[in-house]
Design a protein that fits this description.
single chain; alpha/beta; Rossmann fold; 12 helices; transferase; nucleotide-binding; PRTase_dom; ATP-binding
Length: about 400
């Protein structure tokens, strides 16, 4: 919650420098921005959380912390249980009750070491503002809590009980999360960051062949590779280009363009590996990494089991082609994109490629990561919420491409 202190005016800053400004009043916070941020996080959207400088008493300009939508959001602050609108959004409300002397000692340590205050100023502020504010505003919110933990960190029994309660709730909710995602009705219009190949006779003909259950594995591989090549060629249009002059074999100068970026590929195993041959056909020197995300059969949740990414990943001019055969609910794509973001790949440097996608998955991914472009060859309007296969589906794309242990 400390990120949402409001900017002080120049006049207010001078008051704060004299230790006469009350930072422990609810009026010191930008509740409008706080509420909007929490709402967007709960909707699975990306938000920019401001960085507050306690020495200048203003937000750091042009800097923020990027936080991505998540299944679990932990919100902390002394006024965390104060605002009714914030309270309405909370599934579990906890009040940590600690001895006031310990609180004062911790405040002195924090304000001197991290916020540039002197001890005299800290004590002065504590007597004038902090203690009265705690008595008038903070302590009364204890009644809003579902759980009160006395003695703070020392109370391991209460913390253990709270932890077990949260784990039980998460387990129960995860059982339905992915199925609920599949049942969400997607708007009729696709997000602006989604690019679908033109529905030509060639595209429709190849989709007819690879959907046909009678198609041999040899033919399935051939046409899947052709289709992957077209998807990747379309994705190349989204890369930055620059002008370049070259000399032809007849010693004539001509003006052209060249890609102004390196391209790395990351396939979501196992079905995403079906696009690797197409990528190497189009970009001969592309380095390919792999992410293994498997769905837990008991609850439909994706789990990351393996991750090996290209060594060029961190270079500023590298774009990543993230590859998966089919996008249903978008759960695996969400996790894979978060893995890339955790490895410092800029969101707008990720292009997600696939053969077939459902509107639900496209809207889910686009809502969370609007800067990620998605290139697909076909959008199927129907997602079977029981099997999570697209209908008319491709079945298990990876098995049809790579074969199974029963195949000769």
């Amino acid at each position: 919650m400390d990120s949402f202190y409001r900017d002080l005016t120049d006049e207010e800053v001078e008051i704060a420098k004299r230790n006469d400004w009350d930072f422990d009043s609810p009026n010191s916070y930008d509740y409008d921005l706080l509420l909007d941020t929490l709402v967007q996080l709960k909707q699975g959207k990306t938000v920019e959380v401001p960085i507050y400088d306690f020495e200048t008493h203003k937000r750091v300009p042009n800097k923020s912390h990027t936080i991505y939508g998540a299944n679990v959001i932990i919100f902390e602050g002394i006024f965390g249980l104060f605002d009714p609108k914030v309270l309405e959004m909370m599934d579990l409300k906890v009040f940590v009750d600690t001895d006031v002397d310990i609180c004062l000692a911790r405040r002195i340590k924090r304000d001197v070491a991290e916020r540039g205050f002197d001890i005299t100023g800290v004590l002065q502020i504590y007597q004038r503002f902090v203690k009265p504010s705690y008595d008038n505003y903070v302590y009364p919110t204890k009644k809003n809590a579902d759980v009160v933990i006395p003695r703070g960190l020392e109370n391991m029994v209460a913390i253990d009980l709270l932890t077990k309660h949260i784990q039980r709730q998460l387990k129960e909710r995860k059982m339905q999360s992915r199925w609920d995602m599949a049942r969400i009705s997607a708007p009729g219009q696709l997000p602006p960051n989604v690019i679908v190949l033109e529905r030509t006779n060639q595209i429709m003909g190849m989709h007819t062949i690879i959907r046909d259950i009678e198609t041999s594995r040899h033919d399935f591989i051939f046409y899947a590779d052709r289709l992957a090549t077209l998807v990747i060629e379309r994705a190349l249009e989204e890369l930055p280009y620059e002008a370049r002059s070259v000399v032809t074999p007849t010693n004539s100068a001509t003006e052209g363009i060249a890609v102004k970026a390196q391209v790395g590929g990351v396939s979501i195993l196992r079905a995403g590996g079906t696009m690797e041959i197409g990528l190497r056909r189009v970009i001969r020197d592309a380095v390919i990494g792999k992410i293994l995300i498997q769905t837990e059969p008991s609850n439909g949740e994706p789990h990351l089991h393996y991750c090996k990414l290209p060594p060029t990943l961190a270079e500023p001019n590298t774009y990543i082609f993230l590859m998966d055969a089919v996008v249903g609910t978008g759960a695996a794509g969400l996790m894979a994109i978060r893995v890339l973001l955790d490895h410092n790949v800029p969101e707008d440097h990720i292009i997600f490629l696939n053969f077939l996608a459902a509107p639900q998955g496209l809207h889910t991914i686009s809502s969370a990561f609007p800067k990620v472009k998605i290139v697909t060859s076909f959008v199927d309007p129907i997602l079977n919420t029981e099997t999570l296969y697209l209908e008319p589906g491709l079945g298990n794309f990876g098995d049809r491409y790579f074969g199974t242990e029963n195949d000769e």
